[in-house]
């Protein structure tokens, strides 16, 4: 029993000692671990501190760089502003220099003007003195007093004025007579019938430009097959001679000639010239020209406000676009005659619409006079009659050249409009030559008077502008020159209406800056 107790006590003591020993070992391990953790914490703290210091330094460096950039930008802006201010300063300096130069120039000019004014004043005084002397000398030579000379001059002027008043009264009476309705209609219808005039002439050839003379051989073709095929298809003659760069298309039918010309142009541009290609292009060109002719006829009818015209008649009207008479386009001539006939009809109390229709279609026969026998008045009347036009329109086409007894007044109006359109200045070649000659006569008569420097005929000869010398004439002399020129026109020329003469005194002052 005691042994067990002793053993138990020894075991307890041994266990207690082991526990103490283990507890000491744990404490030593805990102390070592604590020291290790503390060391690790200290190292991490040092590392964090260094990282923080490095971050702070990087931020400081970035902030310094940004600040430096802003400073550099501000310096650049300041430098740019400084340069701009320098340029402005230079501009202002230059402007100041220019202003000083201009002031000097103005002072010099003002001084010259003052000298000129003084010189002119002295000359005027000298001229006045000389005129007084001449007036006194003339008075002594003529033996007339100033009052007597003035009286005689006024009598002469009064006689001239009375003559001009008589002319004005005659003109006024003439105008009054023109407004009488019945008498004026008879006079107008009788007079306009005498003014109608015939005209026939036109161009029968067209030229086609070619890029080189080598193209002439291609147009002719081997043994002439191309040119024979072209002439057979188009119905025109092709003339190829030694003239460089040109081929001539000849034919009396203007539409057929125009189709041939355009066909040849397309063949030259295409480069493929052979009989089959000629037929293809000719067929396509024919369709284009026919559409173009129809469009031209419709446009002309719309322009003069003429409606309900047969499409065939419009087509014949459009063919006149390719017809010329003394270099005047017949379609434009027909449009002019339509407007003139309509205006004349309305002025004498007749129907303006019928007048415009008669005027537009009066030359319709020229579109077919190469295809049918007879003159264009008869051909045109037959065409219009077949397509249902009124008797007035048919008769106007038949009799506008005074070939028959006029039964309708519209025929006389068409004849008048036809003559007016053909004879207006510049419409035809003969009229243009007479027009230019008339202008030259007006200007030459005016330039023959003393004191006239230049003369210009304007408004188709209805007005003359005369430039008189300011040195040789004054206002009174200019008025006398104007009256003398008007009298010279009345005595030497024959003209319709009136001619307005305007005399202008011109002064020119020229200086040269050195």
Description of the structure:
The protein has 514 residues and is mostly helical. Among the domains are: 144-179; 180-202 and 323-424, Hypothetical protein af1432 (Orthogonal Bundle), CATH 1.10.3210; 433-506, Cation efflux protein, cytoplasmic domain (Alpha-Beta Plaits), CATH 3.30.70. Helix content is 70%, strand content 7%. The chain is built from 15 helices and eight strands. It has helices spanning 2-142, 146-178, 181-195, 214-220, 225-234, 254-270, 275-303, 311-319, 330-347, 352-361, 376-386, 391-399, 409-423, 429-447, 475-492, and strands at 205-209, 237-239, 246-250, 324-325, 328-329, 452-458, 463-469, 500-506. The strands form three sheets. A three-stranded antiparallel sheet has the order 1-3-2, with helices on one face. A three-stranded mixed sheet has the order 6-7-8, covered by helices on one side. A two-stranded antiparallel ribbon has the order 4-5. A hairpin with a 2-residue loop joins strand 4 and strand 5. Helix 6 (254-270) crosses helix 7 (275-303) and helix 10 packs across helix 13. The longest helix has 141 residues, at 2-142. The protein starts with a helix and ends in an 8-residue tail after the last strand. The model is unreliable at 190-202 and 426-431 (pLDDT under 50).
């Amino acid at each position: 029993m005691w042994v067990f107790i002793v053993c138990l006590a020894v075991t307890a003591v041994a266990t207690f000692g082991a526990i103490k020993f283990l507890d000491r070992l744990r404490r030593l391990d805990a102390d070592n671990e604590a020291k290790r953790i503390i060391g690790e914490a200290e190292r991490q703290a040092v590392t964090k501190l260094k990282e923080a210091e490095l971050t702070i330094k990087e931020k400081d460096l970035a902030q310094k760089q940004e600040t430096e950039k802003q400073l550099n930008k501000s310096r650049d802006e300041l430098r740019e502003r400084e340069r701009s201010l320098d340029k402005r300063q230079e501009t202002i300096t230059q402007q100041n220099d220019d202003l000083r130069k201009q002031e000097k120039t103005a002072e010099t000019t003002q001084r010259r003007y003052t000298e000129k004014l003084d010189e002119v004043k002295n000359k005027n005084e000298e001229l006045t003195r000389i005129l007084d002397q001449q007036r006194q000398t003339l008075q002594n030579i003529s033996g007339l007093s100033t009052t007597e000379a003035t009286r005689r001059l006024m009598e002469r002027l009064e006689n001239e004025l009375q003559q001009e008043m008589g002319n004005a009264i005659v003109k006024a009476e003439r105008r009054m007579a023109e407004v009488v309705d019945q008498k004026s209609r008879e006079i107008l219808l009788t007079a306009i019938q005498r003014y109608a005039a015939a005209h026939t002439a036109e161009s029968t050839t067209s030229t086609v430009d070619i890029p080189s003379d080598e193209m002439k051989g291609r147009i002719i073709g081997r043994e002439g097959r191309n040119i024979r095929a072209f002439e057979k298809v188009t119905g025109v003659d092709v003339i190829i001679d030694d003239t460089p760069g040109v081929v001539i298309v000849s034919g009396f039918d203007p539409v057929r000639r125009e189709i041939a010309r355009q066909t040849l142009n397309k063949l030259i541009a295409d480069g493929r010239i052979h009989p089959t290609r000629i037929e293809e292009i000719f067929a396509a060109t024919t369709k284009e020209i026919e559409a173009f002719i129809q469009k031209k006829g419709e446009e002309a009818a719309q322009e003069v406000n003429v409606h309900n015209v047969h499409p065939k008649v419009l087509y014949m009207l459009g063919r006149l676009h390719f017809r010329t008479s003394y270099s005047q386009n017949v379609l434009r001539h027909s449009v002019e005659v339509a407007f003139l006939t309509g205006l004349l009809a309305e002025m004498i109390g007749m129907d303006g619409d019928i007048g415009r229709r008669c005027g537009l279609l009066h030359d319709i026969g020229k579109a077919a006079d190469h295809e049918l026998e007879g003159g264009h008045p008869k051909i045109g009347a037959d065409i219009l009659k077949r397509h249902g036009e009124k008797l007035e329109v048919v008769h106007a086409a038949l009799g506008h050249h005074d070939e028959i007894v006029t039964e309708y007044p519209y025929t006389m109006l068409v004849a008048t409009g036809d003559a007016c359109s053909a004879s207006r200045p510049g419409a035809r070649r003969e009229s243009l030559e007479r027009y230019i000659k008339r202008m030259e006569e007006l200007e030459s008569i005016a330039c023959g008077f003393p004191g006239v420097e230049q003369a210009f005929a304007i408004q188709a000869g209805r007005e003359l502008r005369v430039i008189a010398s300011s040195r040789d004439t004054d206002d009174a002399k200019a008025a006398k020159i104007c009256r003398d020129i008007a009298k010279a026109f009345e005595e030497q020329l024959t003209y319709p209406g009136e001619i307005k003469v305007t005399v202008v005194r011109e002064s020119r002052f020229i200086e040269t800056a050195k």
